[in-house]
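Holo prediction. Input below; ligand is manganese (II) ion.
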Amino acid sequence: MSITLHKGDLPDGLTFTGSVAVDSETLGLNINRDKLCLVQLSAGDDTAHIVQLDRSRYDAPNLRALMADQNVTKIFHYARFDVAVMQRYLGVVTTPIYCTKIASKLVRTYTDRHGLKDLARELAGVELSKQQQSSDWGADNLSEAQLAYAASDVLHLHKLKTALDAMLEREGRLEIAKACFAFLPIRASLDLAGWAEEDIFAH
Ligand code: MN
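Structure of the complex:
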């Protein structure tokens, strides 16, 4: 496993083809208050790239271009949050998207445990540690433990997608999953515009 830290943006010339696993770390869970600190990426090849953003400028054209690249599917776990955060701070609408949490909810109907830790254990045989989850992601110098934790959130998403795709196919739910993924940028916009708590589809 290798982790590369990039300050401010992805370097020129670093490209991803087909799909890339993505996660982000923020100063908290309130999107309008808590700034985006890190965006982690993996091609699913046991390597991770971590972009440490400049929170005063968010000048990251390469990262923005990747998020909007129609030829690269961005694989998230709970895309709704990351997509809203990147829309808010990077000003980019992420697309196309795959979300392992939505896929899990559509096929793992035998459980209500859809956390990344649960999926990694069941579908990839990997034990993830959540110990650094609530650490200070705004620190200038991130610890080795923080970087390893941040990377671990993207290293297994390709494997989870493969397993979940087979289950979606088996249950005949691939099309509804794709439609849900396509709606995610709108769901993120609703969150940012004040409809985070209200289900506009409810009666
Ligand atoms: Mn994370």
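The pocket of manganese (II) ion is lined by residues 23, 25, 153 (CB under 6 Å). That is the main takeaway for now.
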